[in-house]
Write a structure and sequence with these properties.
Chain lengths: 624, 927
């Protein structure tokens, strides 16, 4: 009996100890108060933090809101604007809204927000904390490695930037020299051409005289035979020839020139129009071909083949509708012409009408699936895309370091220039000056070699001058376009350490279902589906102190805003587009992990957090 | 001959042109798509008639039969002649007599029934299942006809009222006994016309009607009915939703000074981008009109579900020289059906509402969560999106109770299914919301995808459950899923079958926290005439769609609501939101004002629209907060939340093309303002729930026009900008951008307390008030007590045990009264008395809690809830403490804030922690 009592006493004592250790509900005075705030509540009369009022210690956590800002009720739900602190020993402390206190839902992992007994919340802080700590440790590791990578990147960027700047200044001096050379060559060329011209005229006159003499000689010899044979055919021609001979001879050269250079105004415009029309037509054909490859034409064919006649007719009507929009009368007359009967008139089949009306809400097109208008639009966009892509000239290769590659259409021709002048080894000032010296020398040689006073003009020498001129002026334009591209590049803001410098020539891709998303910083972002591509936006700027990249003014949404994309950056070891989403119609959001965001100062912060979590680890837990 | 090259440029030009065409076409109300009166033969005919131009009818064989007055109506002239050719379809065959029956019901209701006799070629449609099933039990047994004057018979109607039947020409008048003052009259302008059914004389006769390529075969020919109703002693008439209007009172549609206007059209239509002010019909129809004037209030209801057009005639329409005083004349026209009309004598406006809801039913008692805030969008895309939005509310400490999923959650718009990719685990998703006390609503529309692999379609087509087209095949129309058929919900058997589909077994992926939204039930048919079903479609019992069109959505709503009721074994109150409605829809759930637009005028129009719905029984209604179409500026969105927080049904919704507009997306300041607006609603939930209880008992709406509370104050009669929430709160909307000040009329007889600062304002005056961005002007009427819960939670579910605050606004004699109703918020146990109903009475510095739960009902609802705070407005200073009995406990009295917001100043006398139980009797004396 006595033993029993003792045992039960011991048990209950142990139980009490255990309860006090594990349940650890703070006293009313400290309930919901963060440790750093405890001193604020020490005095007997406490001020509301907003200064509106004072309250006594008895009024602290007495389930009645005295301070509208919630100062007096940190541990209860009485004040709507209050905050509750859960220590979450073993995990991260949490400050939550007073509205969560005793609401029947466990919010704090230590269960301290639910103390009125209506619900029992197990303490899950140690387990949850362990997971969180591991996660945090991983994050710190990522940051640590990321910081190293970032440093390398910044160093690289520094070099690349210096390189680009050096190149730019080199190119500028080259441009200056080349300009002069080209100018000299041009003058030379013009002089040569003038000389040639004169020479040619002389020669031609000579030839003409010779011919004339010859002809006269021949005429006198063969005249009777010829006239007997061809008199009817040739006589008028010859007459005119005879009449105009002098004039023709005088103006022959200039006429030829005229024809080449200044063809009459009307001719030019006609030609241009025809040419343009022809081009447009080609475009159209190309586009409709593309569509056919895609969906719309193909589908309408398959309809004709697979489905019964009425539906095929519906399709035809739909096509008619898209092809020849106009008033409904026109449409119906169009239908009538084709002798088609649908049970609903006004030019639309019942299905068409249904789709059309539905499209008001959905903004989708009325025709089946992705209708032809959309397709046509996509087609147009696609074409533009191709053009633009070529123009912008980026490459999608993301992670590797790679050398600059020229992608501009005009630059395709001058690969050798690129090779010659873009190898880093060639970039020293001396190298460049020696190259320049060399060409200057060449030009001078050419110029000097040419003897203006020698007549006739030495053909090979003239050709050399011409070739040199052509070569150098194209060289010049290459240099100029390269300069403008470098200028274009260097005007961007690449971050405070230029940590985003390498992004300029990069694109990041991510595949999500049927779409491939392509994000090219400083340029644009797009969504590619098969052959069609939609612009999600053009580069706008960095935001939130380089934590966000904004792309705006993308393709317009059907009756909606222009598309836009917000790319949130976060620290990661690789440059990787990890997530992309469209939370609001045509407003896209992506996450890009990159070492550029692995900032050293953040590590300390994270380590502090981890330390807090570790020191908060309950000793009681270890004992258990 | 054009070369191929020259033909291609037009094709290129065409693409942008076509885009433009479609774009512009997609952004305007399509007036041409809907018939106007002139394009509607019966309306054109009826509207063209002048007073007393219709061949009159006389009453014959008047007698009392089965406790009702019966008679035959015969043509006064031997032959009915076409007058002025206004009726091209009139028959020269003499019409058969019409059968008239007048019955009287308890509480001042007269019912007039006129139909053809049995020799008619076809039975005309009478709308079933709208009147309360027990109505006949409340019929008064008439025993005696008097003859007050030659050529008329009179009989008892109600205390102080009698009805008079004038024999020739036939006319009915409801009037006050003694004074003989008329209240309502039927056919006093001789415009009653009843087109009798007749056989087609020959096949050449063309009865068809065509409209925009749609042909209505009209196999039974013209059969319209029209008549005039006069409201005597009326300053204004109200009601007959649904129309968008910025005016609360119905503006005249015809008469001197009225430039051309259409009549008010009652025809349920899915109107794309409707205008904020137009007599054209919208989604629902309630053919119930109320009149109010200083001397009288009355009402008239025509139970008829065919297309209806109603003209409100301006004074002097019949005689510009001598415009009628104190009388409003109206003309009612319907395409088909019978005369089954109810006259309500009032004479207080609340009496008229009680009389109307006495025959069509009072609003159902909603679940408590449904009275809280709803978050909707077309569409929350997937489970991740749902989780993120849910978390967003928690992160910003904004409460919400219901998250909604629009059509995109389904597998190809097959309702009762889930998109497998976007919503792979619907039950788990609902479970996560339910763990926080939140609910989910999914959409279920009446159009069924014609897909043989879809079980609903398979069953429905096999069983022949679809509406048939004129040729007898299943009607096939176009809606969201594409080719669709429509359930014939007129048939009770089909409604039962439909109801079964909501069981947890049948609706795979549903859980007990899931409720339903019925959209597109006008019905909306994208390729149908006026975006609806052809009038010659055939329903159960060979009823033409034209005869029941306006009630189609009602039957669908009813079937769905019954489905949820069955699902919960009759224990769980259904929540079903419907877009279409008819008289009686209030018994089945909530409605909203459909696809409105994010502009200030639509914000303004929302108040008259919701007030009108409330006046016609549909108290549980609201408008999409923020506006469905378009993107509201943050200021408009905030103002909409501030106003919408007082709508009986409080839901934010948005079109799929709009920018996301969850409350926290517009910067910290706007987030705080919206949070505050939502908090206001949550703190008033006890008051709202009490008001819903009142509505479910008496039919008095939650949101009320001022004149309903102040029937004698003429200034209030056409105030559509401000409204009362219950008897105690006055709310003034702010409907203009950057508005600096607003003029608020506070009704006479009481003073009013501004709920922002407790300042008192005199009644009977317009006050010019400064407008602040943080709230819209709200006032508590002196002499009232409002119960609140000022602690905020994630959702209403967690507020159940929270303590109350009472706000007592004292009148000139330092008295006030208010009520509190509490039940479990979910079940029907309240019907067995499981509820708390208290009246708080403050008088002589003593607050008393009185039990008004009827003792004989038994039942009890236990609650440990206490009152933690009592705020007294208008009490002279000097109060020191409060003494509570029983127990002789003391509570402190001090100055405290009116609301618990940061920065609010302590300017109200507050009883601190009285902690009296709401379930108990007690008194609290201020010393």
């Amino acid at each position: 009996m006595g033993a029993c009592l003792r045992i039960s006493l011991t048990i209950s004592c142990l139980l009490l100890i255990w309860i006090s250790a594990s349940a650890s509900i703070p006293s009313r005075e400290s309930l919901g108060i963060a440790p750093q705030d405890l001193s604020y509540y020490k005095s007997d009369v406490i001020k509301c933090k907003d200064g509106s009022k004072k309250f006594t210690k008895e009024q602290l956590n007495d389930e009645f809101c005295d301070c509208p800002d919630g100062t007096d009720e940190p541990g209860t739900s009485a004040c709507p604007q209050g905050k509750f602190y859960c220590p979450n020993v073993g995990h991260i402390p949490l400050t939550t809204f007073s509205s969560r206190v005793n609401d029947g839902i466990c919010d704090c992992c230590d269960g301290s927000d639910e103390y009125n007994g209506n619900v029992s919340c197990p303490n899950t802080c140690w387990e949850a904390g362990k997971v969180a700590r591991e996660k945090l440790q991983k994050k710190i590791a990522t940051f640590q490695n990321g910081v190293t990578i970032r440093k390398q990147e910044v160093e690289k960027a520094k070099q690349a930037f210096a390189k680009d700047e050096a190149e730019l200044s080199k190119l500028r001096s080259e441009e200056k020299i080349l300009k002069e050379l080209v100018q000299k060559l041009k003058e030379q060329k013009e002089r040569i051409e003038k000389a040639e011209e004169e020479e040619r005229k002389k020669r031609e006159e000579e030839e003409r005289r010779l011919k004339e003499a010859e002809r006269k000689a021949n005429e006198s010899k063969n005249a009777p035979e010829e006239s007997s044979h061809d008199i009817t055919d040739q006589a008028p021609e010859k007459l005119s020839e005879l009449h105009n001979q002098d004039a023709m001879e005088d103006h022959h050269d200039s006429a030829v020139e005229d024809k080449n250079d200044y063809t009459t105004g009307t001719e030019i415009s006609d030609n241009q129009v025809v040419g343009k029309v022809a081009n447009d037509h080609d475009d159209t054909i190309a586009k409709s071909g593309h569509e056919a490859d895609g969906r719309s034409d193909g589908s309408s064919f398959s309809h004709v083949e697979k489905q019964h006649v009425v539906e095929a007719q519906d399709n035809a009507v739909s096509k008619a509708n898209t092809d020849y929009p106009g008033t409904e009368e026109e449409l119906s007359s169009h239908v009538a012409e084709q002798g088609q009967v649908s049970d609903s008139t006004e030019g639309l089949s019942r299905e068409e009408l249904g789709r059309l009306v539905a499209s008001r809400w959905t903004r989708e097109n009325a025709a089946e699936g992705n209708d032809e208008v959309n397709m046509a639009k996509e087609g147009l966009e696609h074409d533009e895309d191709i053009r633009e892509e070529n123009h912008d000239g980026y490459i999608s290769d993301s992670d590797e370091d790679h050398k600059f590659e020229d992608d501009d259409l005009e630059d395709d021709q001058d690969a050798e220039f690129g090779e010659d002048h873009e190898e880093p080894t060639d970039l020293t000032v001396s190298g460049s000056s020696s190259w320049l010296d060399k060409i200057q020398q060449t030009v001078n040689n050419v110029l000097q070699a040419f003897n203006f006073f020698r007549r006739p003009v030495n053909i090979s020498e003239a050709a050399t001058v011409r070739k040199e001129y052509d070569d150098f002026s194209s060289e010049l334009s290459k240099i100029q376009s390269r300069i403008s591209r470098l200028n274009e590049k260097l005007k961007y803001d690449f971050g405070k350490d230029r940590e985003f410098y390498s992004f300029y020539d990069r694109c990041f891709e991510s595949k999500q279902n049927k779409y491939t998303y392509k994000v090219c910083p400083f340029k644009k972002a797009s969504q590619v589906e098969g052959h069609s591509s939609t612009q999600l936006g053009h580069w706008d700027k960095f935001d939130e102190s380089y934590r966000v990249m904004l792309f705006s003014n993308g393709d317009r949404c059907w009756n909606g805003p222009d598309r836009s994309l917000k790319v949130r950056l976060r620290c990661g070891l690789k440059n990787e587009l990890v997530d992309i989403d469209e939370p609001s119609r045509c407003e896209y959001v992506a996450i890009l992990s990159t070492p550029a965001l692995c900032l050293e100062e953040k590590i300390k912060e994270l380590q502090q957090k981890l330390e807090d979590m570790n020191t908060g680890q309950p000793s009681a837990h270890d004992e258990l | 001959m054009p070369s191929p090259a020259s033909r291609s440029p037009p094709l290129l030009l065409l693409v942008p042109f076509l885009l433009l065409l479609l774009f512009s076409a997609a952004s305007a109300w399509k007036k041409d798509e809907f018939r106007n009166c002139n394009q509607t033969p019966f309306c054109k005919r009826a509207r063209g008639r002048k007073a007393h131009s219709v061949p009159s009818l006389s009453t014959a064989d008047i007698s009392i039969s089965d406790g009702a007055v019966v008679a035959r109506l015969l043509p006064s002239q031997p032959l009915r002649q076409a007058t002025d050719g206004d009726d091209p379809e009139s028959d020269t065959v003499p019409p058969r007599p019409l059968l008239l029956r007048i019955s009287v019901y308890q509480g001042g209701v007269l019912r007039l029934h006129i139909d053809e006799d049995a020799s008619a070629p076809r039975r005309r449609f009478q709308v079933p299942d709208v009147l309360l099933p027990d109505l006949d039990d409340r019929r008064l047994w008439l025993s005696r006809l008097s003859s007050p004057a030659a050529g008329s018979s009179s009989f008892y109607l109600a205390e102080g009222f009698e009805a008079v039947l004038v024999h020739d020409p036939f006319q009915i008048q409801v009037r006050r006994k003694g004074s003989g003052e008329p209240v309502l009259s039927f056919n006093s302008h001789g415009l009653f016309d009843f087109e009798q059914l007749r056989a087609k004389k020959n096949d050449d006769e063309d009865w068809e009607e065509r409209f925009r390529g749609h042909t209505d075969t009209r196999p039974h020919g013209p059969q319209s009915i029209s008549f005039d109703i006069s409201f005597h002693g009326a300053d204004f008439v109200y009601g007959i939703p649904e129309h968008a209007s910025t005016s609360l009172a119905l503006r005249p549609t015809s008469g001197p000074g009225v430039e051309f206007s259409e009549p008010y059209r009652l025809f349920n239509l899915d109107v794309f981008e409707y205008l904020d002010d137009s007599p054209f019909g919208l989604y629902g129809s309630i053919p119930f009109m109320l009149s109010h004037g200083a001397r009288s209030s009355s009402g008239f209801f025509w139970l008829n579900a065919a297309e209806m057009q109603i003209d409100v005639l301006g004074p002097g329409w019949d005689d510009p020289a001598a415009p009628a005083k104190d009388r409003i004349d109206t003309v009612w026209m319907s395409e088909a059906g019978v005369v089954d009309a109810f006259f309500f004598v009032g004479h207080e406006p609340k009496d008229v509402l009680r009389q109307y809801t006495g025959i069509t039913g009072t609003p159902a008692m909603p679940q408590e969560f449904a009275v809280a805030y709803h978050q909707c969008r077309w569409n929350y895309r997937d489970e991740e999106d749902v989780a993120a939005v849910d978390a967003g509310f928690d992160e910003h400490d904004i409460p919400y109770d219901v998250l909604w999923l629009d059509i995109e959650h389904t597998d190809g718009k097959r309702y009762f299914t889930w998109d497998r990719v976007l919503f792979p685990n619907p039950q788990e998703m609902q479970g996560k919301l339910a763990a926080k006390g939140r609910h989910m609503v999914t959409i279920v529309d009446p159009h069924i995808k014609r897909d043989d692999s879809f079980y609903i379609h398979k069953e429905a087509s096999e069983r022949g459950y679809y509406v048939k087209d004129a040729s007898g095949k299943d009607f096939d129309g176009w809606c969201w899923p594409g080719s669709s058929s429509y359930l014939d919900v007129l048939n009770p058997e089909i409604r039962e079958w439909w109801a079964e589909k909501f069981s947890f077994e049948n609706y795979v992926g549903s859980t007990p926290s899931l409720y339903i939204w019925n959209d597109m039930n006008e019905p909306s048919v994208f390729n149908g005439p006026e975006i609806s079903m052809p009038r010659d479609a055939i329903h159960f019992g060979d009823v033409e769609h034209r005869e029941l069109h306006n009630a189609y959505g009602y039957y669908f709503h009813m079937a769905t609501s019954n489905g949820l009721l069955k699902r919960g074994n009759g224990k769980d109150r259904p929540f079903v939101l419907s877009r279409a409605f008819f008289a009686g829809s209030q018994r089945y759930g909530a409605v909203w004002t459909g696809d409105n637009t994010a502009d200030w005028d639509h914000l303004r129009a929302s108040v008259p629209m919701i007030l009108t719905l409330g006046l016609t029984g549909m108290t549980f209604s609201g408008a999409d907060v923020g506006g469905f179409f378009g993107n509201p500026e943050p200021e408009l969105l905030v103002r909409w939340y501030q106003l919408g927080a007082y709508y009986p049904f409080f839901r934010a919704h948005a079109h799929q093309d709009t920018k996301r507009r969850e409350p926290w997306l517009f910067g910290e300041r706007n987030t705080a303002l919206i949070r505050e607006a939502v908090h206001v609603r949550y703190s008033l939930l006890p008051y709202y729930y009490t008001l819903f209880r009142e509505a479910s008992v008496s039919g008095i709406p939650v949101m009320r026009p001022l004149w309903l509370e102040f029937p004698a104050d003429k200034e209030t009669y056409n105030n559509g900008e401000a409204f009362m929430v219950g008897p105690s709160l006055l709310v003034q909307g702010i409907y203009e951008e950057r508005q600096k000040s607003v003029s608020v009329y506070l009704p006479a007889g009481q003073s009013w307390y501004n709920l922002r600062n407790g300042v008192s304002y005199a009644g009977g005056v317009s006050h010019k008030l400064e407008v602040s961005e943080d709230s819209i002007p709200t006032f508590q009427r002196a002499g009232t007590i409002i119960p609140r819960k000022d602690r905020f939670r994630r959702s209403s579910t967690q507020m159940v045990n929270d303590p109350y605050t009472l706000v007592i606004a004292l009148n000139g004699s330092f008295a006030a009264e208010g009520e509190l109703y509490v039940d479990d918020g979910k079940t029907y146990d309240f019907e067995q008395g499981a509820y708390i109903h208290r009246r708080f009475i403050f008088a002589d510095l003593k607050l008393t809690s009185v039990n008004i739960h009827p003792a004989n009902l038994g039942g009890k609802f236990p609650s440990d809830c206490v009152i933690e705070r009592i705020v007294l407005l208008g009490l002279p200073s000097g109060a020191k403490k409060a003494v509570i009995e029983p127990g002789n406990r003391e509570a402190n009295v001090e100055l405290g804030p009116l609301t618990l917001r940061g920065g609010s100043s302590p300017d109200a006398i507050t009883v601190r922690k009285p902690n009296v139980h709401i379930a108990d009797d007690w008194t609290l004396r201020i010393l």
